[in-house]
Amino acid sequence: MSINITDIKQYVYCPRVVYYNYVEPVPRKVSFKMEYARSQHFELNQKEKRRTLKRYNLVEGKRFYGLSVSSEALNLSGKLDILIDTEAESGQRFYPVECKDTDGKIYKNIIYQLVAYAMCIEEMTNTPVKKGYIYIIPEQKAHLIHITDNQKLYVRKITSMIKKIIQEEYYPEPRSKKRCRDCEFQRYCNDCDLPSLEAIKENDKLLMKKLFG
Ligand code: SF4
Q1: Which secondary structure element, helix H or strand E, spans residue 115, and what is its range?
Q2: Residue 7: domain span
Q3: N or C: which end of the chain has fewer CB within 10 A?
Q4: Which is it for the CA torsion 63, 65, 70, 76, positive or negative?
Q5: For 116-131, what is each residue's pLDDT tens digit?
């Protein structure tokens, strides 16, 4: 069974999300926030195809969109938003780019998702991938990410933990209870601190302000 690279991102957010995805699937509601993120993602790819890479501080090269990538060694697979082939004969040739509709902060779970893509590209092309980009859609800005050996080691550990959760039906501890407030699984985790009604309303207000000003 191949592990999807988005599971790496979810594991770093909270290992229990992986448990709910594979071991004990629960009904999931597609929130307005998720729908909005999906439409933004699609729009970016349509517009981005017509623009030069310089505009985004990206290296120049041939672009491949929505590329299926995999690693046999890690048993990982996924779909990469953009792969840039610089066609360089020396130095790094291939750059993975992951696009995100977030508030501009580069979250750790997104970095590890990018690291997993980089590891797949390394295996598929037999070339080193030590840098990649996270493109933040609202900012229209690409952030250069240096990919370290320690990060790659952590991705290996995560894939082992994900296999353990699935094969042994292991119910993991939460990463941080602070994340429960924004989590769609909070009604299934009976050991997390649920937010007050006031906190939920405040959160909704902030989201609406962010989306519509
Ligand atoms: S509600 Fe909390 S513990 Fe449960 S999956 Fe979400 S973040 Fe993890």
Answers
A1: helix 108-125
A2: 3-174
A3: C
A4: positive
A5: 999 999 999 999 999 9
